[in-house]
């Protein structure tokens, strides 16, 4: 079995080493420009289009993360990039859900208990008690109720905070008020105090965090974007922060990464920035899942995490 590997990240050697150990008998090679030799599987993160150039025998492409937007953008720009019969498989959780839960819980609690405002007061040496936000009306809306969004919604609800969830298809989740499809987006947003974004980036969700959406939240709402930068209309957020419609935002992802040094977000007193680090792919868990799925496909079994290319996630 021949396996092609590519990542632009710095830990490529460690991945190759550990993949080789997890797949004894497989012939692993790191893709180099010009390599068009046959392969059965590819394990990739943000691959260049050339990696897919005539690869008729490729059975499956494993994405080393949850979001497959970079690969599907190549396919949209250059139809036929992905070999027609190859499956596209993404990572499911592999340790990302607990990290996402930690990150979003921290952010929600920071805003609920006004730690962001106390930090600003401390910087001015001001001893001032702020009225607490009532927990009963501090409604959190989670956009996306997939592998990550469901666990995030449940963890926040476990604190007794009201939680709503939004997805494409209808769902029933204990303790969460669920909404599905465009027709219910307004009811989902209506008066929510915090919006957490965990949608995949697809043509349908591009620019979904925009002025119209912000205007339906409670006045002084909070935004937590941990999905993709292309979900957010940046100028709409800056305007909403200026008007007070949005009180503060925590942003882990950006339209352009790394964020340019002169970007307005860096200096904004009510924007918190992290460098796309809310939930990292954990090598050991990721490799175990990929090796297990390669084994299952080789035995002719089906696997989870199959991407529906037409749907975009
Ligand atoms: P997932 O399991 O595929 O879940 C996606 C959810 O979004 C599903 O509930 C889906 O609805 C919903 N959805 C998709 N398109 C929609 C639309 N047009 N309208 C309404 N709902 C829609 O994905 P996941 O594993 O939870 O990951 C979500 C995203 O998080 C990834 O795509 C990635 O971009 C991002 N992410 C970021 C980081 C980071 O470090 N910042 C790390 C990991 C992941 P259905 O349930 O009805 O299909
Ligand atoms: C990270 O952003 C991922 O999609 O796994």
UniProtKB/TrEMBL annotation:
Source organism (scientific name): Paraburkholderia megapolitana
InterPro entries: D-isomer_DH_CS, D-isomer_DH_NAD-bd, NAD(P)-bd_dom_sf
UniProt keyword list: NAD, Oxidoreductase, Pyruvate
Superkingdom of origin: Bacteria
SUPFAM superfamilies: NAD(P)-binding Rossmann-fold domains
Domain D-isomer specific 2-hydroxyacid dehydrogenase NAD-binding, residue spans: 107-277
Keyword NAD annotated: yes
Coiled coil: none
Record has Isomerase as a keyword: no
An example Gene Ontology molecular-function term: NAD binding
Stated name of the protein: Glyoxylate/hydroxypyruvate reductase A
One Pfam family in the UniProt entry: 2-Hacid_dh_C
């Amino acid at each position: 079995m021949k396996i092609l590997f590519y990542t632009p990240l710095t830990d490529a050697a460690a991945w190759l080493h550990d993949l080789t150990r997890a797949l004894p008998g497989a012939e692993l090679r790191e893709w180099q420009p010009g390599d068009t030799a046959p392969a059965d599987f590819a394990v990739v993160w943000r691959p260049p289009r050339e990696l897919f150039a005539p690869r008729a025998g490729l059975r499956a492409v494993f994405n080393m993360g949850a979001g497959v937007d970079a690969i599907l953008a190549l396919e949209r720009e250059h139809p036929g990039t992905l070999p027609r019969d190859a499956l596209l498989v993404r990572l499911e959780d592999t340790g990302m859900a607990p990290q996402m839960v930690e990150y979003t819980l921290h952010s929600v609690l920071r805003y609920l208990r006004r730690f962001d405002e106390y930090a600003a007061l401390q910087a001015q040496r001001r001893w001032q008690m702020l009225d607490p936000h009532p927990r009963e009306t501090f409604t959190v809306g989670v956009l996306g109720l997939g592998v990550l969004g469901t666990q995030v919604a449940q963890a926040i609800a476990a604190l007794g905070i009201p939680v709503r969830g939004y997805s494409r298809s209808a769902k029933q989740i204990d303790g969460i008020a669920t909404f599905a499809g465009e027709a219910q987006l307004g009811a989902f947003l209506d008066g929510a105090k915090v919006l957490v974004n965990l949608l995949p980036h697809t043509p349908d969700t591009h620019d979904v965090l925009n002025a119209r959406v912000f205007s339906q939240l409670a006045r002084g709402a909070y935004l937590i974007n941990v999905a993709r930068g292309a979900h957010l209309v940046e100028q709409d957020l800056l305007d909403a922060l200026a008007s007070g419609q949005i009180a503060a935002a925590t942003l882990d992802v950006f339209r352009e990464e790394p964020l340019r040094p002169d970007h307005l977000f860096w200096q904004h007193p009510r924007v918190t920035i992290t460098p796309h680090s809310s939930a990292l792919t954990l090598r050991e868990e990721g490799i175990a899942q990929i090796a297990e799925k390669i084994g299952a496909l080789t035995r002719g079994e089906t696997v989870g995490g199959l991407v529906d290319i037409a749907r975009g996630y």
